[in-house]
């Protein structure tokens, strides 16, 4: 049987947390009449993303399309876990915005707390890198700027593209910061198991902890996908694997195949990103420098 006292206590905690979030997000709150929510464009386990129209005042120039991320729940008061997830993503996005990080990370545009928990972000009309790869779209240049942050779910589905892909530099930004955490060098190693099958670094499933090098591993998978031309024509051997089985596979040398001729350009970078020992992987700045060098030579 459920414990009524425990349930009441949970609601009380949720109400207090909601009050804190209301105060913290005050400057970013959007009026209900300023937002029109349209069709769904994406879905996760605990949230969905819809297309929205944001209007600020009566000026037509202040009308724009936005991505509306709704945190789903079936309660009168959002559960504590949902509120914490909402606040964590809001804080990460706000931190990036304050440090001009939205040059490379999807920009926070506002929030609503009633009747639904919503984060408003830039809408990218070309979808994700994964969609473009599946449509055999052209390559886009990519760079990631760190802000004492570990994304923990880097994958092609979370790299968003806007603009004309036939130009040399379409707009490319990192999205879905729901798993991201602020983490500095002197902080303790992280232990929580997060990420997406096929992209997660092996150390996430060990007891030794992990740091920002998990994003380097994941980015190596994305580079392999880019070099493979079309996702559906390449097999990621790690899909559907986790835990000890996955760690053992990596220790035994299993990696996605680098067989296509033009993968020679990426081969050395990808192999460094996939080193089992995180300390032997390059940092993201080193990866970016190598990519820029390759771009100049192409």
UniProtKB/TrEMBL annotation:
ATP binds at residue 69. Keywords: ATP-binding, Kinase, Nucleotide-binding, Serine/threonine-protein kinase, Transferase. It comes from the Eukaryota. Signal peptide: none annotated. The keyword Nucleotide-binding applies. Residues 35-294 form the Protein kinase domain. GO terms for cellular component: cytoplasm. SUPFAM superfamilies: Protein kinase-like (PK-like). GO terms for biological process: signal transduction. One of its GO terms (molecular function) is ATP binding. Belongs to the protein kinase superfamily. PANTHER family: SERINE-THREONINE PROTEIN KINASE (PTHR23257). This is Protein kinase domain-containing protein.
């Amino acid at each position: 049987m459920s414990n009524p006292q425990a349930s009441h206590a949970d609601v009380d905690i949720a109400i207090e947390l909601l009050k804190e979030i209301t105060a913290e997000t005050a400057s970013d709150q959007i009026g209900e009449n300023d937002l029109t929510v349209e069709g769904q464009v994406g879905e996760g386990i605990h949230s969905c993303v819809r297309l929205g129209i944001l209007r600020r005042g009566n000026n037509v120039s202040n009308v724009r399309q936005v991505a509306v991320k709704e945190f789903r729940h079936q309660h009168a008061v959002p559960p504590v876990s949902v509120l914490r997830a909402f606040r964590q993503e809001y804080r990460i996005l706000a931190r990036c915005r304050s440090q001009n990080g939205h040059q490379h990370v999807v920009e926070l545009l506002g929030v609503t707390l009633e009747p639904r928990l919503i984060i408003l972000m830039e809408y990218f009309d070309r979808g994700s890198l994964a969609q473009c790869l599946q449509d055999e779209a052209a390559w886009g240049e990519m760079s990631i700027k760190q802000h004492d942050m570990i994304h923990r779910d880097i994958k092609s589905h979370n790299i968003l593209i806007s603009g004309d892909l036939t130009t040399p530099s379409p707009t490319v930004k990192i999205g879905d910061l729901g798993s991201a955490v602020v983490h500095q060098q002197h902080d303790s190693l992280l232990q929580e198991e997060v990420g997406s099958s096929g992209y997660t670094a092996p150390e996430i499933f060990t007891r030794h902890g992990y740091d920002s090098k998990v994003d380097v591993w994941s980015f190596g998978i994305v580079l392999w996908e880019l070099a493979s031309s079309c996702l559906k024509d390449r097999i990621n051997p790690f899909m559907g694997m986790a835990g000890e089985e996955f760690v053992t596979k990596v220790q035994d040398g299993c990696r996605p195949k680098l067989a296509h001729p033009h993968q020679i350009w990426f081969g050395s970078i990808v192999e460094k990103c996939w080193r089992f020992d995180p300390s032997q992987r390059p940092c993201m700045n080193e990866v970016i420098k190598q990519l820029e060098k390759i771009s100049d030579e192409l």
